[in-house]
Amino acid sequence: MPVSPENLAIYIHWPFCLSKCPYCDFNSHVREQIDEAAFVGALVAELDHYRILSGSRTITSVFFGGGTPSLMAAATVDRLLQRIARNWTFDKDVEITLEANPTSVEAGKFKDFAAAGINRLSLGIQALNDPDLKALGREHDLPEALAAIDLSRKYFARTSFDLIYARMGQSLADWEVELRQALAMAADHLSLYQLTIERGTAFYQAHEKGRIILPTEDVSADMYDLTREICAAHGLPAYEVSNHAAQGQESRHNLTYWTYGEYIGIGPGAHGRLNMDGAFHALTQHRSPEKWLAKAASAGRGTDQNHRLIRADMAEEMIMMSLRLTEGLSLAGFKKRIGEGVDCFIDQGYLQRLFELGYMERDDHHLRATKAGMPLLNSLLGRLLAS
Question: Residue limits of the Radical SAM core domain (predicted)?
């Protein structure tokens, strides 16, 4: 079900990394020196600015993403959470997530992050063997990854970790072994992403020159099917295209995105969706850390774009996001948010064809992609929303 309008999620972007991973197209940057105090001051200023825009709200989740937010000092996390608590009201079950890399340097800060208020850690493991970790440009090795998982369980109520599959030279059998190894360690949540070659990355250039060979589309599809099957059998079924969780352990923050709830994003390149003056607004921060910092320091906000969304834009975004969920798009939630039923915004003839092909299904409460349709979702959406 959609997050109720009075609730709000907060995303905080820390854009800095020790190195740029060759597959990464996120807004991440490597800097020799970082004025952390200046960035914290600007983040606090943005929190104050958004308090004015949002009014009094209940905060259901806070997510520190990046970049590598575990490079921040624990005192920085503490200060930001204290400011959020001053400006709004934390839900009694608030989820506060920090993304972290499992290097020994960062893992040593886990105790302090927990004391600051982090109650869920998301670890960027990515692979469970040293050669592939090196090929992916990761800073950690396998012993550090395993130690970080153990340490995270000691200090945090909830732990998730990421893996990337369909990697260079990886076979279906290789992935099954690795996935089962991961599931033996995963207590509540796994994020499992297929490696994609994104324009502008180092991998893109290498792939164009033939230096990177990925599994075939058929093998990648088999890996996807195997992932869903094995995770479900282990008690961590897919609740979204790439995310698997035990019942009740789904990422509350990400569910805000996928159910088209309201959230604010602060920090370089962060995005938000906020209801202001009776209209939904799409807000985007300056991507450049330096440009964002200069504007946030001088004006109290680093906003680059603020678009008032029309109903058709909102409908398209909500359909695209919610169909990523295994449960699909809530028909009642859609009508409540958009003001009209979903049938007004999709190609009915094409939808009927998808029903006949077994790629989509509908009941009294939800419209959803089937098991067969989910891997094809991106290509299906283009035509489904063409009207």
Answer: 2-237
Together in a domain, 360 and 231? no
Report which residue type is found at 278. Answer: G
Do 18 and 129 belong to one domain?
A: yes
* Predicted local confidence at residue 277, as pLDDT: 82
- Widest CA span of the chain, in angstroms? 58
Question: Does residue 210 carry a pLDDT above 80?
Answer: yes
* DSSP letter (8 states) at residue 367: E
- Do 245 and 331 sit in the same domain of this protein? no
Question: Is 269 part of any domain?
Answer: no
The answer to whether position 296 is within a domain reads: no
Pair 248, 329 in one domain = no
Residue 211 has a pLDDT of 92
pLDDT at 387: 60
Sheet holding 158-165, edge to edge: 243-245, 189-194, 158-165, 120-126, 89-100, 58-66, 7-14, 263-266, 271-276, 279-285, 303-308
Q: pLDDT by residue (tens digit) across 255-280?
A: 999 999 999 999 999 999 999 988 99
Contact 145, 199 (CB under 8 A): no
| Per-residue pLDDT tens over the stretch 111-144 | 999 999 999 999 999 999 999 999 999 999 999 9
Inter-residue contact 244 to 236 (CB < 8 Å):
yes
Domain range enclosing 37: 7-257
Decide: helix, strand or coil at residue 114. Answer: helix
**Given pLDDT bands bounded at 50, 70 and 90, which one contains residue 359?**
very high
The total number of structural domains that make up the chain: 2
Which pair of tokens denotes residue 33? 């020196």
Amino acid at site 136: L
Distance CA 164, CA 124 (A): 10
Where among 239, 257, 275 does a domain terminate?
257
* Amino acid, single-letter form, for residue 50: Y
Res 79 pLDDT > 50: yes
pLDDT of the residue at 3: 41
- Residue 107's pLDDT band, with cuts at 50, 70 and 90, is confident
Residue 220 lies in a domain: yes
156/114 Cα distance (integer angstroms): 6
Is 67 within a domain?
A: yes
Distance CA 142, CA 161 (A): 13
Q: Looking at the structure, do residues 103 and 226 belong to the same domain, yes or no?
A: yes
Compute the distance between CA of residue 268 and CA of residue 12 in angstroms, rounded to an integer. 9
Last residue of a domain, one of 213, 230, 257: 257
